[in-house]
Amino acid sequence: MVACLSARWVAQRVVDVSVAIPNKPGRDPGEATEAAARKILVLLELLRAKAIRFSTYEVVHGRDFRSFQRDLQHLRKIGEEAGFRISPIKDHERAELTLTIRGCDRSMRAQVS
């Protein structure tokens, strides 16, 4: 059974996935890496709009298509455990979010829908 999607749990998984990225000199060790922060923002956009466009990602984050693919791939791995899926990128532009929330109470399902 898939556990309820917890913002704290997902944020920790994003940080775990991004741990391999070396710290920049002068960065506070308690501060999230740029990659972790970017993935959290991508996930928040997916939750808000149920989709994300590369054109928006490129403008907001200043990153290329390969980074977009990589960030979505990391989030897909997290989604396997958290109960969500991110579609393949369609037309080199858009990916969509599908939530599978089982074992959550009605109020949680209503908040996510």
Structural descriptors:
single chain, 113 residues, mainly alpha, Arc Repressor Mutant, subunit A, 3-stranded antiparallel sheet, 3 strands, 54% helix, globular
Description:
This protein has 113 residues and is mainly alpha-helical. It has one domain (9-16, 33-112): Arc Repressor Mutant, subunit A (Orthogonal Bundle). It is 54% helix and 11% strand. It contains five helices and three strands; from the N terminus they run ααβααββα. It has helices at residues 7-18, 34-49, 54-61, 65-82, 106-112; strands at 51-53, 84-86, 94-99. A three-stranded antiparallel beta sheet has the order 1-3-2. α1 packs antiparallel against α2 (34-49), α1 (7-18) crosses α4 and α2 (34-49) crosses α4 (65-82). It is globular, with a radius of gyration of 14 Å. The protein starts with 6 loop residues before the first helix and ends with a helix.
Q: How would the blueprint of this fold be written?
A:
Layout: H1 7-18, H2 34-49, E1 51-53, H3 54-61, H4 65-82, E2 84-86, E3 94-99, H5 106-112
Helix pairs in contact: 1-2, 1-4, 2-4
Summarize the structure.
This protein is 54% helix and 11% strand.
